Amino acid sequence: MPIAYLPIRLYNAALDMGVFAVIGLGVNIDHVATVRQARGTVEPDPVWAAVQAELGGADCITFHLRKDRRHINDRDAELLGQTVRCKLNMEMSMDEEIVQIALKIRPAQATLVPEKRQELTTEGGLDCLANFDRLAEVTRRLAEAGVSVSAFIDPQAEQIQAAAKAGCEAIELHTGCYANAVLPVGGGPADAQAVAGELEKIATGLDDGLQVGLVVHAGHGLTYLNIAPVAAMTGFCEFNIGHSIIARAMFTGLANAVAEMKNAIREGEANAGNFE
Ligand code: PXP
Q: Residue 112: which CATH number?
């Protein structure tokens, strides 16, 4: 029996009861702030974007307060904390200044990501083994403040186990390599074998995560055109999607773009099993 998207703490209980939850959509609004910052002005406002995304059916609003404040700034983070009515997910590094802000805002969820100054976007997953002690410490402090912690990681067994051992409640599997296999950087056709291989890694990561009791999300590079096979994998709790939705929103409006992505996810779910 499908049920509506649930807050993370109820999600595992529902699965334990044999109830399948539909996959929630977290809309990443960073790209709206990127356009604002291109002019150093006040528009477009990512806080308005969050409202439009909620009106379009977003289950979660995701933002990344980076150390260099290249898009979302402190004012945005504070206002999002005060105004978002659905789940709020703060992507963040484990830098102490950012941890302190998260402890003040107390979003429903924090997704811990690696952060490099030069990167265009988050490039790879967090290395939970190399950063284990800091990960465990930050996870404990956030959890004590009532923030559910998710780690953004590559779909690798040792990373999944380390995230669970560090006390994370959830993981977000990095789908960027899959996205690049579907639409190779620099052009050219999709490599069917590479696509199948990346989907296999994601499916295995999903199973491994569920096995060790983690809630499993996915994100990065997901689009209207590549979401179907991932949405057909049973067990995901949430997808975090930014660029593709904001790009479409320029032509259709954000609420419409969010609703269309939710439809694409529902269509993928309806094909569960057909892509394996
Ligand atoms: N998940 C994480 C952890 C991210 O860092 C990002 C990019 O900010 C996303 C999801 C969304 O990626 P995209 O903009 O490619 O949809």
A: 3.20.20.70
